[in-house]
Amino acid sequence: MSNKINYYSKILISKFNFLIIPILAIIIFENMLSLEIKTYFYTISLIVKHILLFFAPLIIFIFIASAIISLKEQALKFTFLLLIFVTLSNFIGVISGYIIGINIIPLIKMPYFFDTSDFIVSEKSIMIIKLFPPLITTQTAMYLGIFIGIILTCFQKDSVSQYILKARNGIITFFRKYFSLILPIFIFGSLCSIQYEKFMHKLLISYGQVILLFIMVQFLYIFIFYLIASKFKISLCLIYIKNMIPALITAFFTMSSTATLPHTITCTEKNHLDKNFTQIILPIVCNMHNIGSAVGIPILVLAIMQSFNLTLPNDFQFFNFAIHYTLAKYAVAGIPGGIIITIIPLLEHYLHFTSEMISVITTIYCLLDSFGTVSNVACNGAFSIFFKKIYDLFPNKIKS
Fold first, then answer.
1. Residue 204's domain is classified under what CATH number?
2. How confident is the model at residue 262 (pLDDT cuts 50, 70, 90)?
3. Beta bridge partners of 119
4. pLDDT band at residue 123, thresholds of 50, 70 and 90?
5. Considering the entire predicted model, what is its pTM?
6. Which residue in 179, 251, 266, 321 has the most C-beta neighbors within 10 A?
7. Dist. CA 367–CA 149, nearest whole Å
8. Structural domain span for residue 38
9. Is the pLDDT of residue 400 over 50?
10. Nearest alpha carbon to residue 378 among 296, 254, 292
11. How far apart are CA 54 and CA 15, in angstroms?
12. How far apart are CA 35 and CA 108, in angstroms?
């Protein structure tokens, strides 16, 4: 028991240092930092952001292609059936978040609106943006990833597939070992772009209820997902959720579905799911099936658009964004805040987010990422139960 406490304490301290300290630092040293120093850190943050955006299409291509390639040893029917249901589940999550947000966000009183006077704008910052134009669009990378992944799977080009899988593993290693070290600087620089004293006052007033809504929706969605998986038997639903608690605790502190995977598998097996099937499906979906961000990000997006006094998107505009956002989920690297980094081009292109709005949503989502990861892990367990029941309806199943 003491070992478990020490384990979770170390994780908590580690994540506290990486995501909370930059915010505490900017609060403590706000009055000590000159505008020149703030601009310096903001420029560093912009460099990190736009280097990521420069490589984002390549990363998205590799992750989507490798997600399809990694399933090639299974029956082709299993591959596409799984991808269809994962995509459908993610899309339903995004649309659910939008429906909740579009009906509730306008009811939340947000009397303060942000304007450009709250942010630092420098000529250096504008020059940085022009230094890193992406070679291809994110959307093109998505479609290429799907096409190449299917081609390599059908024609069994193992040598090319191995290069793509190695590239994916290299990207994952980089993000876990090195980008996690850069993330605090990225957050600190983003906060330095803001005249923090005015911003924090507006943030607490404007987003307090939104943050509460974000958390409540996560837990509600978990309950509904398990209720469906248990065929609407409340007692069985609660047993399923209870068995997942150890994995959910780990998810909260690690903020990574991948790091929580061993616990997710163990806990899901307790829910009377075939062991071999669990070990096949969960490693595949742990970074593709992200319900926490699917439901949560639309709520934050709508709240931020309202706080910046922008017109909320109509159903068609958001539907277009939702399709590409759902596909972008195949490119998430399983790191804290990874989905926000991935969809920055989509937010800018489809919903006209500015750099200031990106800074706000990145900061808020990183703070709430623990709750999103809990939802991801919980819903992955429920999805496994649900998908097993669907898959059992088909003849000539894979051998588990």
1. 1.10.3860
2. confident
3. 194
4. very low
5. 0.69
6. 251
7. 34
8. 18-391
9. no
10. 292
11. 27
12. 34
